[in-house]
Design brief:
The chain is mainly alpha-helical. 84% of the residues lie in helices and 0% in strands. The protein has one domain (3-148): Up-down Bundle (Four Helix Bundle (Hemerythrin (Met), subunit A)), CATH 1.20.120.
């Protein structure tokens, strides 16, 4: 495969994975808003299913990003010296830490097993975690473009 085509496909896969992550964060946020009105067990099961997809999306973003660094046009050493990569990785790590906290909360609600599974304050706090993740994620493509352009 020609190197330019390979680099373009890797970039496409990485951006697609980031968009996939956006979808699942948005879906969980919307469901948590609905849960404020009716926190029933079926809704919790959907949130838990979305949480699994969210973690799969995080894995896809990490895998495609690593592939882009190690199999792309530029040598990986040039990425290693670029400050924008490290900012992007730090933002991604912060999002992962927030996702761990959010997942623990969801699984705690499942263990509790009562209906409604959470009170309004817990639901708002969980939604706030997701919104922070979404807001941090907006910065990832900006640093990705800076990285791609060799800023």
């Amino acid at each position: 495969m020609p190197p330019m085509l390979r680099a373009a496909l890797l970039g496409y896969a990485h951006v697609s994975a980031i968009l996939l992550l956006t979808v699942f964060i948005s879906a969980q946020t919307a469901l948590l808003h609905a849960a404020l009105h009716d926190a029933h067990a079926a809704l919790l099961q959907r949130l838990l299913r979305l949480d699994r997809w969210l973690w799969g999306s995080f894995a896809a973003v990490a895998a495609t990003g690593a592939a882009h660094v190690f199999l792309g046009l530029r040598a990986w050493q040039s990425f290693a010296l670029d400050w924008t990569l490290w900012v992007k990785l730090a933002l991604f790590a912060l999002m992962l830490a927030m996702a761990v906290a959010a997942s623990r909360t969801l699984h705690g609600w499942r263990r509790r097993g009562s209906a409604p599974f959470a009170d309004a304050g817990e639901l708002r706090a969980q939604r706030r975690w997701l919104m922070w993740q979404a807001h941090l994620m907006v910065l990832l493509p900006a640093f990705g473009m800076l990285l791609a352009k060799g800023y």
